[in-house]
Design brief:
about 75% helix
Amino acid sequence: FLNWVNIGLTLAFIAIAFLEFGNNEGKVTAYVFLPVSILIMCYGLALFYWRANRIANRRSGPYDDRLGPLLLVFCLAGALITAFVLTVTLDEQRKNAVPGTITTP
């Protein structure tokens, strides 16, 4: 449980740093990473309760986590790809802006 919370909090702190100190592309990355970090922490909590329930009811069976690491990899890869695509799209829009118009920095 603590490992999942650690990963989620680390990702959330990175997203908050992007949000505070980044430009528009950094803010897009932050808005993509924050929901992923919340999802990771919620998954860790659900896994903790699932294991605790199985132990309390003295059920036999494996208590290992086979889905979690795969979920983490796909969520992080999806977040990185989404942030990259949105960053490139914003950069192209800024390059193609008509001179003399007001654009956001």
